[in-house]
Amino acid sequence: MAKPRHRRLPVKALRWRCDLTHLPFRTTDEVAPVSDVIGQASAVEALDFGLSSDAPGQNVFVRGLTGTGRMTLVKGLLEKLQPACAAVQDLCYVHNFSAPHQPRLISVPPGTARDFRRRMQEFAEFVRDDLADALQTDTLKAPREMLESQVKTLLEAITEPFEKDLRAAGLALVTVSMGPVARAAILLVRDGKPVSPEEFEQLRSQGKISDKEHKQFKKKRDGFQRRLEEVTTRMKEIREDGARIVREGVEEGARGLMGELVASIRGVFPGPDVETFLGEVVDDIIENRVLAAGEGLPDPPRAYGVNVLLCHAGEGSCPVVTEQTPTLANLLGTIEREWGTQGPIPSDYSMIRAGSLLKAAGGYLILEARDILSEPGAWKVLVRTLRSGSLEMVPPELTWPIWQPGLKPQPIPVKIRVILVGSSEIYALLDRRDPDFSDLFKVLADFGSTIERNERGVKQYAGVLARIITDEKLPPFNKKAVAALVEHGARVAGHGRKLTARFGRIADLAREAAWLAQRENSGRVVVTGEHVSEAIRRTKHRADLPSRRFQEYLADGTIRVQTSGEVVGQINGLAVISTGPLVYGFPARITATVGAGTAGIIDIEEQSSLSGSIHTKGFQILGGLLRSLLRTDHPLAFSASLAFEQSYGGIDGDSASGAEICCLLSALTGIALRQGVAMTGAIDQMGHVQAIGGVNEKVEGFFDTCLAAGLTGEQGVIIPTANEAELMLRTDVVEACRKKKFSIWTVECIHDALEILTGVPAGRRDGADGYPEGTLLATAQEQARQFWLRSLQSPAPAEAVRKRIVAADGSVARFKTPS
Fold first, then answer.
1. pLDDT, tens digit (0-9, with 9 covering 90-100), for 409-450
2. Nearest Cα to 576, choosing from 604, 554, 546?
3. Helix residue spans in 726-797 (DSSP H)
4. I want to staple 300 with a disulfide (CB 3.0 to 4.6 A). Which of 127, 264, 315, 445 is the partner?
5. Does pLDDT of 92 surpass 50?
6. Residue 708 above 60 pLDDT?
7. How confident is the model over 111-150, as pLDDT tens digits?
8. What are phi and psi of 714, to 5 degrees?
9. Residue 164, CB-side half-sphere exposure with 13 Å CA sphere
10. How far apart (Å, rounded) are the C-alpha atoms in residues 805 and 815?
């Protein structure tokens, strides 16, 4: 085997090391904490605009990964900017006397709602406790008694002459009960006493009253009866007029008293809302508590009280509300339910409670997009409120326990700025699915997931860590511990010249490293680089069960992976699996077979419905690259199949397409591939090897497999040159490479990978002359030609074969079996 042209990376290229001179301190006690979110200048600018603009629809969507400080920046910027907000009126609900099912909304100047409630409470308590006595004072009582005396005098002036004439005629006027009804009756007087109708008839039957006396009595009675009706009518009129005059007098006195009491309230709260409410209160008191018995009425503090929904600290204050649980009830508010001995008490204005949409009126409401989308109906309510500028605390379509039929508070006009915090996926979802989203959230504050990996970025990292340590009272970190966290930030970033801005993950490691240091020492504790390294190891170990299980399967032979020797048509590709935030790499054995036929290249993963769309695309590109490499003047007349062996789950991604084309060419040419060398890299149709994801995890996964089987010094991994800058390999992998027990190669085209894997020159075309003799691709061309010649010698007519494998335009037909 010819010696391959190695492109082994030097050890210094395998892991970036933080320059300790960029950390000019011994421990973080000497570092000034950085409270600002770093590396997010464009997001800060967008937030500043969104918070300052007053144009319609300038709500803000803060987009970015969790752990990048989105919430910290939003709250900090609001606190720093302290944007001026127009004064928002305090809001209250009171009883609506004209429509009890629709509580009346009252607005009062900012910061005065509680004073209004206190004054109305005092007024209501006076009505309950002192109104009756106040109406009995001489000032109010004397006019009423004088009116009642005048009525009595008028009645006597009518009744006395009538009764005198009755007495002269030997008659008397008495009240006779007839069942439930009482009426006036004129009776005969005998022996100084009125004779009842029953006694009168008895005396007649006994002959003590003659017929003559009976006729005389009847005549006199009938005459007085007509006068009685006139007197009764007149008395009724006098009594009604008197009662009316007395009622008017009482009402006038009571209104005067009520007017004095509410005048002080009206003077402090001169708005039309309060004026209307006070007028209704006075009318209710007069009609139901002064002029009527007032039985069965609610307690005055309940009937005339004030439910304060929104009360600001004072003019110019700008409310900032963060709603952690944006349920419908928390956004809109609720109507509480009270229970009495007989069951639920009907809801009224006093049971209404404000939600965060109202609490943030005139200011800012901060919401997590994921949370509000997970609550049924919450997003719809938010959009409707922002679009209409009106808050219906109890939307009609909602039902108990949020809404109770029969009570519908008046809608509340609200002006609010919403800051929605979410990921790129949620932003894309809302933009695609909700037509109102782009009109309502016009400002996008994009949070990047990385910052620059330079001296300034490293020092900013130290400042952020110092803030976390100070806030959480962690022990100090020395410079090597900080450097270890910075290096881990470089690995998490997955970019050659970046550090991750997801400080939540870095903070988690810092906390665990501090815990480890404190567990070791009881005195003064300083966190070291070893503590950070151990925290990283422990964090990964807690979630690496899939990786350990894979190594166990390798050890007992359940999964077959060969890490030494050479095999035709077999190569170790590399794949990754995710467990939460952690990613693990492992080798995937890929095999290829080639034989005579016309089926083209068959992707067994796709035929088994185990491949994703990106993997399928990579496989299609593989076919195009094969045509590009072979460039035959005849159709490709062979059948081939490719498979990920012992893969029983889904396969996706195109990072194995480079390994697949090498495996296919090995099967076609019969040239063996080194099993100790794994490959990862996507390809294009021109043969360039392109960048892939998870390069560190893939290299480490194959290294662990080789380590378990025994390092030979001939093992390693081929990666795209484009991924070289991303390498942040574990220290044990770097050390093995330093000792030349393991190698990392970078390649830019598939020819380089073939030479490393086979030790055979791949060959480069030189114009129309084709590939040099003895090269791998020259062998591949010849093998393809032999398959074509064999197809022409088959029993089927040559033209039929040609039609079966060549499309009308001359391209290879059925190059990939359709699914």
1. 888 888 899 999 998 899 999 999 999 999 999 999 888 888
2. 546
3. 731-738, 750-758, 776-792
4. 127
5. yes
6. yes
7. 899 999 999 999 999 988 888 777 776 555 666 677 777 7
8. -105, 5
9. 6
10. 8
Residue 667 CA to residue 652 CA, distance in Å, equals: 23
Contact 629, 687 (CB under 8 A): yes
Q: What are the DSSP calls for 798-812, one per residue?
A: HHHHHHHHB-TTSSB
Give strand ranges (E) for 73-120: 90-94, 104-108
Nearest residue to 16 (alpha-carbon basis) of 512, 628, 726, 508: 726
| Rounded CA separation 129/471 (Å) | 55
Across the range 382-394, mean pLDDT stands at 87
Alpha carbon of residue 255 to chain centroid: 54
- d(C-alpha 519, C-alpha 131), whole Å: 73
- The alpha carbons of the chain give a radius of gyration, in whole angstroms, of 48
- CA neighbours closer than 13 Å in the CB half-sphere of residue 238: 19
pLDDT digits (tens, 9 = 90+) for 223-250: 777 877 777 787 777 777 777 776 777 7
The 3-state DSSP class for residue 758 equals: helix
Amino acid of residue 13? A
Please compute the mean of the pLDDT values over residues 649-659 and round it to a whole number.
74
Q: How many CA atoms lie within 13 A of 284 on its CB side?
A: 19
Rounded CA separation 374/376 (Å): 6
The residue-averaged pLDDT of 475-479 equals 95
Residue 331: CB atoms within 10 Å: 25
Residues 573 and 660: beta-carbon distance below 8 Å: yes
Beta-carbon contacts of 807 under 8 Å, excluding residues fewer than 6 positions away, are 813
Q: Average pLDDT, whole number, for the chain?
A: 82
Please count the helices (runs of H) and the strands (runs of E) in the chain.
28, 30
CA distance 241 to 250: 14
Check pLDDT > 50 for residue 803: no
The crossing angle, in degrees rounded to 10, of helices 657-669 and 613-630 is 40
Peptide bond into 401 cis (omega under 30): yes
Token pair of 125, please? 């308590």
Mean pLDDT of 52-67: 81
pLDDT > 70: percent of the chain: 85
Whether residue 730 contacts residue 700, with contact meaning beta carbons closer than 8 Å, is answered with yes
Contact 757, 715 (CB under 8 A): no
Other beta carbons within 10 angstroms of residue 302's beta carbon come to 14
Token pair of 641 as six digits: 């199949």
Reported as half-sphere exposure (CB side, CA atoms, 13 A), residue 49 has a value of 15
| Beta strand extents in 68-169 (DSSP E only) | 90-94, 104-108
Q: Which two tokens stand for residue 269?
A: 């709260």
Whole-angstrom distance, CA of residue 402 vs CA of residue 381? 13
Structure pTM?
0.70
Structure tokens of 601? 């290249």
Domains delineated in the chain: 16-38+449-542 (1.10.8.60), 40-88+314-447 (3.40.50.300), 549-805 (3.30.230.10)
Identify whether the C-beta of residue 758 lies closer than 8 Å to the C-beta of residue 6: no
795: alpha, beta or left? (left if phi > 0; alpha if psi -120 to 50): alpha
DSSP label at residue 403 = -
Residues 254 and 242: their CA atoms lie apart, in Å, by 18
- State both tokens at 514: 């501090």
Across the strands, what pairs with 652?
none
Strand partners, 322: 366
Quick one: which of 69, 111, 117 has its CA closest to 90? 111
Q: Which helix (H) or strand (E) holds 574?
A: strand 570-579
